[in-house]
Amino acid sequence: MVTKNFKLRSDQIAPLVVSTGWCMASDRVVVDGSPIGYMYRQKPVSGGDSGWRFLAGDEDEAYMARNENHGVYDVNTVVNYDPSVIPFLDAPPGSRFDKVAGNTYEALEPWPEDRGQ
Q1: How do the pLDDT tens digits run along the chain, 117 residues long?
Q2: Taking Cα atoms as reference points, which of 28, 41, 31 lies closest to residue 9?
Q3: Beta pairing partners, 106
């Protein structure tokens, strides 16, 4: 089992959003403390899945292929690392966003296969 040293301690996690389930986040965000630079929402894969995936944006395929480099967390936990994503949490499955400057995100073309239809 891999032990992670998270950037935020559990007592630093505030109730910023009502939980919408779990999400996946890269260790670049929750361990290294990098801001969320890329996020997308898939159709949920199982019960409790919000569909959200949060990345710093500089992870490559090799990094993400290693299961120990990402994990499953409550959405509220991840938004504590970068609250600038909160306004986007209601975006539908298929939505993708790139951080372009500061706390500004640009919507990317949706992935049709991930729309909730």
Answers
A1: 668 999 999 999 999 999 889 999 999 999 999 999 999 999 999 999 999 999 999 999 999 999 999 999 999 999 999 999 999 999 999 999 999 988 899 999 886 665 444
A2: 31
A3: 98
55 DSSP β-pair partners = 38
Q: Which two tokens stand for residue 32?
A: 């290294």
pTM score, whole prediction: 0.91
Give the DSSP letter string of 1-58.
------SS-GGG----S----EEEEEHHHHTT-PPP-EEEEPPPSSTTEEEEEEE-S-
Count the neighbouring beta carbons within 10 Å of the beta carbon of residue 46. 7
